Amino acid sequence: MSYPETYTAFRRTTGDLPNTIQQTQETLPKELGPKDVVIKIRAVSLNYREHATLIGTYPVQTDAGGIPCSDAAAEVVATGSAVKIFKVGDPVSPHVAQGPFEDTDDGVAVAIGFSKEGVLREYAIYEEKHLVHLPKDMSWEEGSILPCAGVTAWTALDRLTHVPKNASALMQGTGGVSIIALILCISAGIQPIITSSSDEKLQALQKLHPKVRGINYKTTTDMGAEVKHLTNGRGVNFVINNTGPQSIMDDVGFLCERGGTVSLVGFLHGFDADWEPRRLVELMSKSAKIKGIAVGSKAEFEEMNRYLEEKKVKLTPALDRTFDFKDSKEAFEYLASGKHTGKIVIKVAA
């Protein structure tokens, strides 16, 4: 398959906040480098940070007027003369954080959609080393939710490498990372517990699998007691923190007696906290750990994809709503509304 000289993309507007996105026309080079791969983007999924960049709260420098979004499923349509790993027709995805995880010479992290042009466009070119094969028999929409939310959930659950007997996990909120983590938990036999302020959302999620348990954090007076109740007094092995620093020490309190993990993956409630630093001693008594998740490495992305393929894990329950490419601005507005459960996807091409 060949590729066109021009294509449509969306770029962030510039000027006073909040910004929005607008459609533009872009060009592709006629000549490819030996390691270049041209991809036709089929689907793009949104993360909260896409909205945060438009309102100025994302804590990473972002190119003004750049092409947003980091997560895409795409098809290879052309390759450079020295490309060996990919062929035309392969379903692929760019790896989100390109840099130190891939042992590049400069050791500088490049985040597509932020410090480098993103994927909200019809075509893109990446070096062979920046792409991964997607799992077989997965839809474009499912594949598009893997690069950031999927790998984040995977690494937050310690890559499912050591799953204790009767393990459980607590997911904060019903966003993409939480829902994918819930699906991974079910696949690995981990008891999933998920929180929301909406009983309607919790009831819908509990229909996915008999093991799913929900907690309405607005109406539950003692979260710790409820977590203990749902885990027969053991506490959870994993907490996936989407809200930020404020709840971290409460999260440590939810953990099991020995060796639990709190993974900090988001900042929905901001960056401040009012707990006393001495409370960190609680980590010692539980031999617990707090770890920050910066998505994950390319190797971890590939490892997760192998797991999903081998286990035949279906991610369709993580899909909330799909928008046409021309309606990308409406997709961003829906993201800002917070009404979704799971991932919002933009279908770029059929």
What structural keywords apply?
Quinone Oxidoreductase, Chain A, domain 1; 7-stranded mixed sheet; 6-stranded parallel sheet; 26% helix; 25% strand; globular
What does this structure look like?
- Residues 15-346 form the Enoyl reductase (ER) domain.
- This is Alcohol dehydrogenase.
- The chain is an alpha/beta fold and 350 residues long.
- It has two domains: 6-145 and 315-347, Quinone Oxidoreductase, Chain A, domain 1 (Alpha-Beta Complex); 150-292, NAD(P)-binding Rossmann-like Domain (Rossmann fold).
- The protein is 26% helix and 25% strand.
- It has helices spanning 48-55, 140-144, 146-156, 176-188, 199-206, 223-230, 248-254, 281-286, 298-311, 328-337, and strands at 6-12, 21-27, 36-45, 71-79, 91-94, 97-98, 110-111, 123-127, 131-133, 168-171, 191-196, 213-216, 238-241, 261-264, 289-292, 319-324, 343-347.
- The strands form four sheets. Strands 3, 4, 5, 8, 9, 16 and 17 form a seven-stranded mixed beta sheet that branches.
- Strand 11, helix 5 and strand 12 form a beta-alpha-beta unit.
- The longest helix has 14 residues, at 298-311.
- The chain starts with 5 loop residues before the first strand and ends with a strand.
- Residues 101-107 have low confidence and may be disordered.
